[in-house]
Amino acid sequence: MRHRPFRLPRRLLASFTAAAGLLALLSGTPAAGSAPEATAADANTATVFYYTKTKNWPSTYLHYAPDGGSWTTVPGTRMEAACTDWVKQTVDLGSATGLAATFNNGSGTWDNNGGANYDLGTGVLTVKDGVVAHSDPCAGTDPGEPGNQATVYYSTATSGWTTTNLHYAPAGASWTTPPGIGMAAACTGWWKRTVDLGTATTLRATFNNGNGVWDNNNGADYALSAGLATVKDGAVTKDAKDPCAAQEPDTQAPTAPTKVTANATHTSIVLTWEAATDDTAVTKYQVTRTGGTKGTVVTDVGSTVFSDTGLEERTAYTYTVKALDAAGNTSPASAEAKATTGEQAPEPAAGTPLGTDPRKDPIYFVLTARFQDGDTSNNRGGSQHVKSGNAANDDPMFRGDFKGLVGKLDYIKALGFSAVWVTPVVLNRSDYDYHGYHGYDFYKVDPRLESAGASYQDLINAAHAKGMKIYQDVVYNHSSRWGAKGLSTPAVYGVRDSQWSWYYDEKNEGFTYDGLTVEPKSGKSYYNGDLWSTAEPSGNTCLNWGKPTGGKSAEGYTLYNCQWPSPTSGMFPKDLYHQCWIGNWEGEDSRSCWLHEDLADFNTENTAVQNYLIGAYNKYIDMGVDGFRVDTAVHIPRTTWNRRFLPAINERVTQRFGADKARNFFVFGEVAAFVNDKWNRGSVNHSAQFYSWKERKEYAADDAAAALEMYAYEQQQGTGNQPTSTNAFLNGNSYHAPDHSKFSGMHIIDMRMHMNFGDAPNAFGNGKDSDDSVNDATYNVVYVDSHDYGPNKSSDRYAGGTDAWAENMSLMWTFRGIPTLYYGSEIEFQKGKKIDCGPSCPLATTGRAYFGDHLAGSVTATDFGKVGSSSGTVATTLDQPLVKHVQRLNRIRRAVPALQMGQYSTEGISGRMAFKRRYTGGGTDSFALVTVTGSATYTGIPNGTYTDAVTGDVKTVANGTLSVAAPGKGNLRVYVLNGPGKIGDSGPYLK
């Protein structure tokens, strides 16, 4: 969730110095000693080397066309053996200065660069696993008299280069011809080359990736000597040990974990501890529990928090923790931590996540407090009820609840949605906290959302009973302005004098704030008597406690120091909360400073904070939620997600429900990049796709230091050196197994498509352009507008018109990704209205208005997208044109697996929004041709019988070509190979 910027002056975060020793990768010219460019005579030939080890083809053919010329006859020219794992072919280009090329095995299996062909120049070129470089991989050592030799090892662990060349000059001799000679892969992350120096004993050297990216030691070249030397991250080690030699065994054990604490709630105990240290790395912890009737239990844990549930009532338990490294070395046991359980919790038994592939489940997004009021007794207006204008509309901010949502699950199912995204459920505390993003007690569900028989657990269970998932919005980045109960709450100055008694409630030691219960002295449910003190608290760190600031409030009242929480006041402990305002939204400080005055920014690199949040969200995992939507994910360093929070989620789901359920526990992050480019203003650290990847190198053991190292390294690498993926793309017409080995564990909201949905073709083009930089874009969550913004960062709910809505929906439901709809968009609810104006205007006038009036009456669903019966106002709602449209889209998508999980391609297709998709797996092979709004022609497709899921039209393809007439705006055609036929009835748009 993004919030309106705070208007007070903010302290800019001091610029930081990048860690020394990072590798300099410089584009452009190499070292000063580079040889002249190739002569004109060389420019008319190309010697192409092709790497064969991956393909393992018995023979390889080069099929090519010189620029401006014709292609060779298929399969092309057979390539000749060059050296181990390489073949080559030299071709005469005539007057051309380059060629387009593809490769094949002579029997119909092709490598055409994912449909784009290879664009090659002249001279010596290599093609290895899709990467084009300029070097001779079979070049030998320089000829000449035998003499001194230098063996050079070069590390690419930092750069990630897939080809490495050594460009060098022995002392007193000439430089090799750029780009130099190819180095051979030696071991993981290292390349090696031995060169003859003749009588010389030293050499100057630079390195490059064969594609114009050089490491020339910042222009100074590298000074090397005869013998063995290593070059890693700019550092030369003379007479080094062979980095690829067998490593000495690791025999050093980690240190013992410290500060182990155990806290019991009902029959659960949460255990936390400080991380252990090791000379390599701690890989896991072993928690040993004694007590109760089950004897000694040992559990492996990957994080520094462990939630032990299902224990015996009123029983004492003792815990110790050991740390282990990758070699199996085990630390001594920690000091014991003890806790005694209480009585069994009264809550219902935990649910079990459905655990199916999340791409099958279109998402309906609700602000729970604004969707449907099932219980008026839990309605609360808060301190801004009158000021906002909500009181005049009899519209308290907390109005909708779980009881209302449970009662209208059939409405959501009748629309065809099988997943519901709900706003944060934890107890909030602020002046205007109905949305849930001001978390105060992360371990407690907000009572303003619950009712007897309609707890959060009841909602989860009810949804699962209908085959529907619950995705919970979660916040790791910040708490309320009053801190987080159980972790830290600020000491605030207050005085009940003649000016401030209206604001500061009288203390009631026996009362605990829960947002719902009315405190008897004040008559408020938003009681604040526990938040302030006139006397300076022990250990206070806020300067000038209680002294007048010299300023006045809007009412003319005296303002005092330490009266209002802020990051720079010293009211928050710096080890738990950050101490600055964001100055640059695309700078490092956006991940380590406050983004709004009422969102106290956690120091998420602190173990105590991590343990607090992991323990809290383990509770909701245990309840059986099906996934987490991660709020403000970009404001936490990727290293912290990848080291701590994402592994903890996976570990807890695996521990509770098994590996299969963990694999499909859906985590999707909000990385608010509100720009229309592929990379957010050129900053990789602030781009959505960046968070879908694991780290590419090791950083400092300390999380805060690691965050800065990662930030500097990835910013230096820039947008051109980020990892790429083909997981979303077909290989020709073929589906291929996706490679998720570098997946972080967090999928993303497709912010780029969201920003461009003012026009569906723009959204389509922008989405395609970004997909190679996402680990797997078939999991992208795609929406037009939300509770924060409309397209192009509009502050209003989408008002593009019904036809445009229908076109956007047709694209979302058939293109890659998971279609998501913000509540009410099915009837263009509040179109054109300001989405959020805080308490400065009534909620009823905004995009977050109460929706329940449109749901009055009864509705039952017989299946997804099918209404069994309906009466009252909801029957009218269900009769709207976009409702009919989305119902049928959901039924079509549910019936065609390619539209749910398929990879896609636009190769061989003409048409503005036209593509093909295929999914193959588990005995299913689903192939579909899609065009939205406009006409399309598909060439090179499999022959066979195609049936349109929209009209039932049947086309037989015998020559690999199928043409489709334009269906009209908002309409589409989905021709499915051996398809199921027409799905559903013709409607206002699908006809």
Automatic annotation (TrEMBL):
Residues spanning the signal sequence: 1-34
Annotated region (Disordered), positions in chain: 240-260, 328-359, 374-393
GO biological process: polysaccharide catabolic process
Organism for this UniProt entry: Streptomyces mesophilus
Domain Fibronectin type-III: 253-344
CDD domains, A to Z: AmyAc_bac_CMD_like_2, FN3
Lineage: Bacteria, Bacillati, Actinomycetota, Actinomycetes, Kitasatosporales
A Pfam family hit: Alpha-amylase
SMART domains according to UniProt: Aamy (SM00642), CBM_25 (SM01066), FN3 (SM00060)
Sorted UniProt keywords: Carbohydrate metabolism, Glycosidase, Hydrolase, Metal-binding, Polysaccharide degradation, Signal
Feature: compositional bias, Polar residues: 249-260, 374-391
Molecular functions per Gene Ontology: hydrolase activity, acting on glycosyl bonds; metal ion binding; starch binding
Cofactor(s) required, per the database record: Ca(2+)
SUPFAM superfamilies: (Trans)glycosidases, Fibronectin type III
Protein name in UniProt: Alpha-amylase
